Amino acid sequence: MTEGQRRRKAFAQYLSDELAQLWRAGTKRVERARIEEIGQRAGLDRDETYEAFGAARGDIWEGEFVESDEGPGWEEVELKNVPPSGPPDDMGL
To answer: What is the pTM of this model?
Structure first.
């Protein structure tokens, strides 16, 4: 496993844990800054974080991106579901 794969796997685990906790607490929206913080903890840069977060959609989280009113891109995610089991081991990481 390469260093990049290790970082992406760590991101997936951190993301799964944090989103599951937020979901249980009733939080349905997660700001982009919070996703970026999770990426930083895993050692990912901003672009890697966005890519890994998008790739986790459907496995770790389900929902919709909420577009920013101030410019291009998304500002938060509205969660529709967070599966309790977390990511499968073979997420291609």
So the answer is: 0.85
